[in-house]
Amino acid sequence: MRTMNDPDHAEQRADAALFIDWDNLKVGLKNLGGQPNVSSLLDAVGSRGRVVIARAYADWQQRSNSFDPPNLYAAGIEPVYVPVRMQGGKILKNSADVKLAVDCIDFLNTAPHLKVFVLVSGDADLVHLVNFLRARGKRVVVIGVSGTVAPTLSENVDDLLIYDQDIEPIRQPEVAPSPRKPKQQDTERLEEALSTLEDLLRNRSNRVGSLFSWIGIQLGRRGFDYRSLGFERLKDFLREAERTGRIRIVTRGLQDWAYLPEQYEHIAENEAAEEEEENRGESDELPGGVVIGALDEDAQRNFLRYLVELERRSEYLIPPYIVSHLIKDSVLPSLSQSQLRSLVRDAVGEGILAHSTHTVTHRQTGKPHELRTLRVNGDHPLVAPMIVDIHQEEPEAATV
Question: 3 to each of 17, 43, 217, 250, how far by Cα in Å?
């Protein structure tokens, strides 16, 4: 059986470069009700080559993109700043495709070992770049969003992937495919792989979960190739592990993280410990301050509405509890754990969350004491409309 760390397997994975027109991807997915998932993207690209260069192009000063650079960088993708052209306060043109094309030509000349060029965009203007790369013996893969890939581009590439269908499906098919039925030896091998996965997560000291990319490397070192188990992508294997109750998957900071079920249930405690470490300056996570006013309208509304709903179903609120539930329920999956903590702190500073107290029983002494908590300020002008909307959506009490 060929495994991921076999020399023959490594030779088959040609060096690849990934170039992302971030606005093209992000806006296209937003129109479909989705958003980019870097773990899924790198998983798909990694099956077509060994990614040695990865860049994302956008105007990172734009409100919709301002929180993404730290998370892209943490995922191994270099954020490249490309300012947009403005006129009268309106965006005229995003020149990301021009900078992307220039970089491709530069790497074509300076990095001849690159055999695969992956372009995440549907822009018709890139057809000239595609033809140029292919004429020089390079394999070109285009990844785009449904309805945004120009026909002239899709007809001239070596491989075309539709992100919302092939990488991270947004709309589920009406008829679900029949589940894979492994042979007996496959079943035994799959069970062995799942047990190895549990051991990896159980023996890892990292409290904030394990990245899919790290899991893939560790499984490969132990001789497990998810493809030999019948899965097209690493994420498919991990979803099978979640389906069988072995792990829980959480998306934050544009990436996917895996937890053992018992680890997942203690996210709030882990979050408190991580916050304490961050306050001491010992956190390894990249900083990325987030304020309420910088969120786009949809994200701001989702956050505020969630605060109201969380308070209604909780005994009391404290910052780690809020952050852990924002993570568990994937309310703002594009934000990292550190960024969510910053967001909650800003909500307190802006008066959206007000200081309060709650009487609880001390775990050690058994005596009641006052715990410093937070409450949602229903009189805040941003919160009041959320409360009204929720009340209007609730079914009217049945009349007797």
Answer: 23, 17, 11, 27
Mean pLDDT of the chain: 84
**Tell me, what's the pLDDT at 283?**
45
3-state class of 281 per DSSP?
coil
Domain map (residue ranges) of the chain: 7-167, 184-255, 268-393
Q: Can you read off the two tokens belonging to residue 363? A: 């775990």
Class of domain 7-167: alpha beta
DSSP SS3 for 268: helix
Backbone angles phi, psi at 309, to 5 degrees: -70, -35
Q: Would you state the torsion angle of the CA atoms of residues 240, 241, 244, 245, taken in this order, to the nearest 10 degrees?
A: -140
Residue recorded with tokens 């170039």:
19
pLDDT of residue 161: 95
Q: Is a pLDDT exceeding 60 seen at residue 6?
A: no
Kindly give the pairing relationship between strand 248-252 and strand 255-259.
Answer: antiparallel
3-state secondary structure of 264: helix
CA angle (193, 195, 198) in 5-degree steps: 110
CATH of domain 268-393: 1.10.10
pTM of the predicted protein model:
0.80
Of 11, 40, 17, the closest CA to residue 233 belongs to 40
CA distance 296 to 128: 35
Report residue 25 as tokens. 């991807």
First to last CA, the chain: 69
CB atoms within 10 A of CB 365: 8
- Segment 87-92 long-range contacts (CB within 8 Å, at least 24 positions apart): none
Q: How many C-alpha atoms does 329 have within 13 Å on its Cβ side?
A: 14
Check residue 268 and give its pLDDT: 64
Q: In what order do the strands lie in the sheet with 139-144?
A: 78-81, 50-58, 15-21, 116-120, 139-144, 159-162
Beta strands in 214-352 (DSSP E): 248-252, 255-259
